[in-house]
Amino acid sequence: MPCAILFRRMLLTTALGVGTLLPAQAEPLAWPTSIAEAAARNADLQAAHASREAARYAQRGAYSGFLPQISAGAAHTESSGSLVTAPSAYSGSVTATQNIFSGFLDSAKVEQAAGNLEVAEASYAAARAQLSLDLKSAYAGLHHAQDNVELTSKIVQRLSENVRMVELRFEGGRENKGSLLLTRATLAQARYENLQAQQSLVASQARLARVLGRADAEALSVAEPVPTTMPEPVSDFRALARETPSYRILAAQERAAAAGVVLARAAFYPSINLSSTLSREGADWFPDGSRRTLGVNVTIPIFNGGRDYNATRSSAATLTAAGFNKEGTERQLLVSLRQAHAAYVAAVEKLKVDAAYIEAAEARAQIARSKYNNGLMTFDDWDRIESDLILRQKAWLASLRDRALAEAVWEQTQGKGVIP
Question: How far is CA 123 from CA 47, 126, 281, 292, in A?
């Protein structure tokens, strides 16, 4: 879009000389640098990463039920009385216990922990996609705010020249007082909008600083627009929906809920444990008397007040709810994906349209100014063309920002983004 490039160069190279422009700033932040900084310092992403690590360690710990449990202990007792034969006794022991059967409890714990880890992994992917959206939105927002300050200052300069031109025509008797007052009011409005743009710049700096994990937003600026790509056709939205973190989270929750049912039912099965103890006992330390024991323990549940029955029914209901949640979320994701893709395509086309309008508006404004100076156009007609140029310039800036945001929303809806 040549006209868009020319318009941006006009904003960046014109000597404005009006009002207070951008404050003194440090080196502008490049887009790749912002990605690396956000990935390393964003608090929300770090929290999601810590939750994923916690789930990973919990999943590893779930295998402990398949391994022997070994413990050691030592004791010293002092006794007194007429019946005491050994007033001082020492003992030391090592006990190993191996579960033989626990009603599938241990395997259910492993399966449930694996489901919870999948939830944490998908949640981390969702956090990365959300951070990508936040970063693109904040970065594009600050870039738009910078350009808006430049544009509104340029508008102030242009309208100041218009006021001087109308004043000369009014003093020469070729223009009425109403036209002069209107151009002065329009200039006052433009100065107000320039002030608003500068205040919006401060807010945009604070927003980007939060996403980057910075405590100080002062003098923050960006060096370039957010890189964009052209939309591609999508043939299977359902496949995309099932790859999103939102769907994966619910699928993993369903897996964990299914394991929860097995876990609850394990209470109805007997538990079998094999244990062995090696101990030494005596009146002195280290005791020299030894004892070895080997045993098998079988525990059969009889009745515990209906706790296990109700826990099983509760787990089954949780599994049913998880299935329905997954099904409903899949339908909603299909809607969201189609809407996000349609908005993305529309934003790309709208930017092209607004760029074309700028080209036309600039040509019309140049011709109209010449005609008005030569008395070949009325003030009202000239003013409408000038106002249209300003509106088209603002619309193009907004479309540039919205196009980047629409692409970011499309990526986030899929669970994708720029955060590594």
Answer: 11, 5, 54, 51
CATH superfamily, domain 2-64+112-267+318-414, is Outer membrane efflux proteins (OEP) (1.20.1600.10)
Strands (E), 108-185: none
Strand order in the sheet with 88-101: 69-78, 88-101, 271-282, 289-299
Those residues with Cβ within 8 angstroms of residue 160's Cβ, 6 or more apart along the chain or in another chain: 18, 187
pTM, rounded to two decimals: 0.81
Cα separation, 179 vs 324, in Å, equals 67
Q: Is the peptide bond before 66 cis (omega within 30 degrees of 0)?
A: no
Joined tokens for residue 295: 């045993």
Enumerate the H helices of 213-244 as residue ranges: 237-243
Residue 359's contacts (CB-CB under 8 Å, 6 or more residues apart) are 3
How far is residue 234's CA from residue 369's CA, in Å, rounded to a whole number? 48
305: left (phi over 0), alpha (psi -120 to 50) or beta: left
Tokens linked to 262: 């097995």
Q: Which residue has the tokens 């909008």?
A: 193
Average pLDDT in the 35-52 region?
93
pLDDT in tens, 362-404: 999 999 999 998 889 999 999 999 999 999 999 999 999 999 9
